[in-house]
Amino acid sequence: MKETITYTTAPTNYDWFGTHTLEENVGTTTNGKTIRKVAGPATRVEAQRGRYGSGLHLAVDENEWDKLVRYELVKLA
Fold first, then answer.
1. Of the residues 4, 36, 53, 77, which has the fewest C-beta atoms closer than 10 A?
2. What is the number of structural domains in the chain?
3. Which tens digit of pLDDT belongs to each residue from 24-36?
4. Residue 13: pLDDT above 90?
5. Which residues pair with 21 in a beta bridge?
6. Beta strands in 9-76 (DSSP E)
7. Residue 36 forms beta bridges with which residues?
8. Which residue, 16, 5, 24, 17, is CA-closest to 54?
9. What is the pTM of this model?
10. Would you state the pLDDT for residue 30?
């Protein structure tokens, strides 16, 4: 099964079946929220990101993460 990476501020209780944390603390947002790197089934990634977003949590793919880092909108751990 192919997995997709998401960077999120959501706690683990937002994770659905097949989603798991790869790194607990990859950085922080400008308001101090911890960001974790998660992987999950590629077939369910949009639903999973929508779940994170429903709680007003950051939920971005690797391309968006790279932009956040490049523009210093997140602080790396």
1. 77
2. 1
3. 999 999 999 999 9
4. yes
5. 38
6. 20-29, 34-41, 59-60, 74-76
7. 8
8. 16
9. 0.95
10. 93
Average pLDDT over residues 36-41: 98
Q: What is the rounded distance in angstroms from the CA atom of residue 43 to the CA atom of residue 3?
A: 8
1 confidence band (pLDDT: 50, 70, 90): confident
The domain of 66 spans: 3-76
Q: For tokens 């960001």, what's the residue?
A: 35
Between CA 45 and CA 19 the distance in angstroms is 9
Token pair 């990101």 is at which residue? 49
Identity of the residue numbered 41? P
**62, 20 contact by CB (below 8 A):** no
Within 8 A by CB and 6+ apart from 25, the residues are 34, 35, 36, 77
Q: Is 64 in a helix, a strand, or coil? A: helix
